[in-house]
Structures are given as structure tokens and as C-alpha cells.
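Q: Predict the bound structure with fe (ii) ion.
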Amino acid sequence: MNQTINPPPGFDEASGLRQKSRAAGMDPDYWYAVEEVRNVKPGSVVEVIFWKRSIALYRTADGEFHAVENRCAHRQLKLSLGQVEGCRLVCGYHGWEYDEQGRVVGIPDLFGRKELPEISIRRYPVQVRYGLVWLFPGNPELAEQRRIPDIPEIEGRDRWACVPITFTCTAHHSMIIDNVSDFSHAYLHRKYRPFDGATLTRCETEGDDVHLAYDTQVGRGPISGLFVDHGRLNTNHIELCYQYPYQWSNTDDEIKHWLFVLPIDERTTRTFFLFYFKSLKIPLLPVRIPRFAMTAVMKVSNRLLIGPLLDEDRVAVEAEQLGYERHWDAPSIEVNPVVSAFQRVTVRKWQECLAREAESGNAAA
Ligand code: FES
Ligand SMILES: [Fe+2]
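A: Predicted complex:
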């Protein structure tokens, strides 16, 4: 077994399923959440990374979002080091100006030239939904037909309360997908007990989706038990899905979540969790929290319960990443069949993506 620090193998034919899944990127032909809206103020620019590809995401003074590749066409400086002036993104070095199509529309000093040269950089389609900024890193012609998942419960007038939780994890995205849907790790959460005694009742791969269900005790911990109305809800069963490249869960149509991962590189992933509840109970009282107060309660529950719970997972998967880098050639031993089902989809999708890119002559990796 490899006890030294040779790097794990990349995505090659000789590797096993687990090794391939830990080296796979994600198909760029989907919409990816890249940032929370509230983190990008009008008139500012930030860097976001999709699988090693740096993108400048900026917001004009009128609040609109735009994204372009993160390099100035002049000397290749990152445009995220520049600034937004009105509706233009301006490079911080010589002040070249870009419009939202990525075209150079201003050069402060042309040294006597009369005309602006025709120069442009790549732009990326952007949308805003659920308090998140979404970007389409792949073939722009597919952006219209691919959809951000519809979550009707958190849109419109009667929407359920939902407060996003976002963090960066030093682990491969496949480890995070494994973690969220593999309920064999109840031991890690023995303090908060979000699920207890899970029996897998379904694990089916349909196309690019893996559907699963557990009979389990949802939300029986001392804190979660205060908010969840066990008298009214069936909290003995949960359905989950790895709906590539996203993931969701549903408890009795009242407690739900989506997870959107943003793959940054082989050991870094940004995660965007949306937890949403139809109703919550006022702790210690047999009373439901009124709709108007739900957002405030969600913020408290994110801080007291969901945040600390996800932090336990983050610590575990970051340790798993380190363990994998040191012992990537140790035998893969899994007790829960869902893990290899996820890995098969992740690997197949990346293989298809690499084959597509090889055909078109572009490099996805
Ligand atoms: S490097 Fe951007 S303007 Fe010169
Ligand atoms: Fe967990």
C-alpha cells in the first residue's frame, strides 16, 4: 500500500471506480450555482472557479449579473482584479474596458490609432434564482434548453422559508455527494441525530439519476426534535436523489433540501445547500410557527442546528480527502450500495464529457 505522498492517479483507464470518481470533473453543460446573490454587491467583481477555469463574475450598477473569462485580452491579467464602472468591466492595469458580451469597447490610450481593434473574450450565460447566481460553463448553445432545477416551493407569494448555507470544502465533489446520501454515517452525528437507524429501501439508477430511500428516524435529536412536528409528519422515511449534477432529499413533502456543488478542482468544492420547510413548530409548544416568522426561525435553526451538523460532515470529508491522498491504492470497501451507484454515474458522465471534448478538439480537463 502506498504510504508515501505520491499523488493519487488522475482519470485514467487503469484506475478503479473509486479512483476514477475521485479524479472526475463535472459536465460543464449544466447550470451551476457559483455564488450567493448577497455576496456580490452592485458595482463589484469576484472570481469564481468552475473546475480549474477562472471566471470573472460582475454586477453592474443596475444590479445585473454578467460573467466573462477571467483574463484581460491585453496581458492576461485577471479581470477580477479590475473594477466595474457603470455597465463595463475595466481591467486594473491599462484600463481596457469590456462590455457584457466580452467585447473590448474602450482602450484609454490608442497611441494614435483611430479605430478600436476588434477583440473579445468569452462570455458565460448567467441567471439568478433562489438567491443564487447560476452560470453555464459549457456549450452556450445548450444553455437555453438545460434548466436550473425548478423548486416551486421556494418561489412565488406563498413560498416556504429557505436560507442558503454555503461553504467551501477541501474535498472532491464525489466525496460530498457520497456523504450527503449515504446514511451509514449516523455515528458521526450522534449529538444532533438528523437520522437514526437507516434501512435502505430503494436504490435505482435511472439515466443520470440515482434514486434512493431509507426507512429511518428523521430529526430525532434534542435540537431538531424541538422544531420538527413528529406528531403530524411521517418522519420515519426519507427519499433522496443524486440528480446529476445536483442532489436533493424529501421527508413527507414538508422537509426538503437541494445541494448544488461547484467543482473547483480535485480537492476543492464549493457547496450551496438550500434547506426549506413547509412549517416548523415553536420549540416546546404544540404550535406551528407562522409563515412570516419562518425566515427568522430558519436563520436560527441554520445557526443552531443545520450549520453545526454540516460542519461535522465537512470535517469528516476533508479528513477523508487527506486519507485518500495518502492511501488512494488501499482496497475500496463499501457497505452501502448507494456509494458505488453514485460513483458509476459521476464517472460515466465525465467519460462522456471527455469523449465529447476530444471529438470537438477542446480540453474539458
Ligand atoms: S493587462 Fe489589461 S489592460 Fe493591459
Ligand atoms: Fe452527514
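A: The chain has two domains: 32-142, 152-348.
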